[in-house]
Amino acid sequence: MKNFNYIQPKSLKEASDILKKKPHEAMLYAGGTDALGLMKQDIIKPEEVVNLKSVPGLNYISYTNGKGLRIGALTELAEIAENPVISEKYPILRHAALAVASPQLRNLGTIAGNLCQRPRCWYYREEFNCLRKGGDMCYAFDGQNKYHCVIGGGPCFIVHPSDLAVVLLALDAKLTVFGDRKTRTVQLKDFFVSPGDDYQHENNLKAGEIITEIQIPELPQDAKSAFVKFRERGVWDFAVVSVGAVIRKEGSKVISGKLAFGGVAPIPWMDESLNAKLPGVALSEEPVAQLVSEILKKAEPLSKNAYKVPLVRNLTKRLLLEL
Ligand SMILES: Cc1cc2nc3c(=O)[nH]c(=O)nc-3n(C[C@H](O)[C@H](O)[C@H](O)COP(=O)(O)OP(=O)(O)OC[C@H]3O[C@@H](n4cnc5c(N)ncnc54)[C@H](O)[C@@H]3O)c2cc1C
Ligand code: SF4
To answer: Is there an atom of ligand 1 within 6 Å of 29 CB?
Structure first.
């Protein structure tokens, strides 16, 4: 690993100023569960490692009746999984946090780090100098692409690895971002960047910007939610595909809802036109089968991942029928 300066800022401003001054040389470091691996493998070689954990006041979970939930950027996934208010009011979030990695990684990994983790594409993680690392080709396109995206890809074909992002998208979450001495609010659905727009970054954070908080609106009392993650091993594995659903229903019919998908696209995937079809759908075999046949209609699978399309449709069907 390349030698680096370890910086312990005392304020967001101090951290942000260092990151802004050296956008290519300085890296923000939270729990380090992804950042350290990238450094050890020489995928990222920062000169300055800026430890966000030395900035006080970024680790909290706060719920206000009628307003919703606020989670500080440095809150560890284990705390989210164990929080009683989250278990009661947002069980889908608890479920997704518990589905991440292993207890050790959940004890260290933070919610903002989870949203900003880098892709798991095996070419990216190994010594291939692919497009995302500044090279001139995507090795997955004609190579081993079993785990890559089926929609929204090109010229890079990653899937976004975050489980939390899928449920936070279905929950309509927002982020507070600090940078340039001020804060801005970003809807999570606008945070992630498709490779067609920028194939070297996964989100629209600018140099020096730091996520400080995740906000989740209050859910209506009658809202039901669920998350399902399909993975090849029972634990410590990324999603092959995942589905998050938040719906309201009257009798057996959906009155409103949101579906979000992981493991299918370079960004956590939500299809507004699909969600617009949810109201009025009766939650029984035939109408649900009809609805799920609309999922990923525009998918363009690569040579080895067409299996993801029926997989995600069947998981969604199961989830909706369970709800
Ligand atoms: C073996 C293994 C299995 C895993 N399995 C899963 C899984 O199943 N599902 C899943 O979702 N994830 C999984 N992960 C990823 C893991 O959840 C993330 O590594 C973790 O959540 C990252 O949080 P961190 O605090 O450690 O971030 P770090 O590693 O410190 O940082 C990760 C990235 O986020 C940036 N960053 C951190 N905080 C902020 C902030 N506040 N604002 C802006 N940028 C920031 C850093 O600069 C860095 O680029 C796995 C990881 C490993 C190593
Ligand atoms: S999918 Fe993206 S990260 Fe993977 S090899 Fe292709 S360009 Fe690189």
So the answer is: yes
